[in-house]
Amino acid sequence: FVEDPERTTDAHPRLTASAHAATALTVGTLVAAIVVGRPWTLSGRPQTERVTVPQTRFSVLAPPAEVVAEESPEGVIAVGVGDILTDPYFVGVEVRPWLEQVEGAIRSDEIEAWLSIEPAVPEEATRIERTESADADPPSYEEVYRYPNGAHLYSRAYMFEDVEVVVTAFVFDGASEAITASARGAIGSLQATRRTPDAAPE
C-alpha cells in the first residue's frame, strides 16, 4: 500500500502513520500475481502455522512458507509469507509506527478519526466490502478488494497505542471456499504480546 498523505493530522497525532512508499516486497508480489494469473490448482484446505513478525511483538496464521522481511527508513516493518506462484495464498503484514508516540490509552475520538480516514486503494483494484469494529480490542476494520482478473485482496487494519498493523491476504480467482476462508482467517488472526515497558533510567 502507498500511505495516504491525508493520514497526517494535527488534531490526532497518533493517527500520523509513518509515510512510506509501498515496499518492493508487496508491490513485486502483487504485480507478479496479476501478470501470471493462476499458476496452480486452487483446491483443498491449506495448512497454517503461527508466524512471528520479526522485530515485533506480533504474529499471524499463514501457510508454512518462507518469511521475507524488510524495514523502511521510517521504521515500518513489512513481512511477506509465502510464494505467490506456489502457495495457496500470500500473507503480508505491515507494522507502521505512529510518528508521534502518545502516552495513555487510545481515546474514542482517536478511534473515530482513524476509522474515518480512507486508505489508499491498491492499484487496479476495486473495494467491494468494508466492516468496522470500533469497540473491539484492538479497534480494527476489514476491507475486501477485487482485481480485474478476479483475484481478491483481503485486508484488516488494527489500531494499537504505538503502531498500526495491517494484515493482508492475496487470493487468486477460482480459489476454493476453504482457501478463501483460510485467507480471511489469516487477516483476523493477529496476536500481540504485552508491550515491554521501557527500562527505568539508572
Question: Can you give a write-up of this model?
Answer:
This protein has 3 helices and 10 strands. The longest helix is centred in the first third of the chain and has 13 residues. With 202 residues, it is of the alpha+beta class. 16% of the residues lie in helices and 30% in strands. It starts with 23 loop residues before the first helix and ends in a 10-residue tail after the last strand. The chain is globular, with a radius of gyration of 17 Å. The strands form 2 sheets. It has a 7-stranded antiparallel beta sheet, with helices on both faces. The N terminus is likely disordered.
Estimated helix fraction? 10-25%
* Mean pLDDT figure: 79
Number of helices: 3
First-last Cα distance: 42 Å
The helix-and-strand class reads: alpha+beta
Q: Give the ordered list of helices and strands.
A: HEEEEEHEEEEHE
- Indicate the radius of gyration in whole angstroms: 17 Å
- The coarse silhouette is globular
Estimate what percentage of residues fall within beta strands.
25-35%
Low-confidence runs: 1-10, 16-25
Oligomer: single chain
What characterizes the major β-sheet?
7 strands, antiparallel
Tell me the number of strands. Answer: 10
Question: Strands across the major sheet, in which order?
Answer: 3-4-5-9-8-7-6
Question: Quick recap of the structure?
Answer:
The protein is 16% helix and 30% strand. The chain is an alpha+beta fold.
Characteristics of this structure?
disordered N terminus; 3 helices; 16% helix; seven-stranded antiparallel sheet; alpha+beta; 10 strands
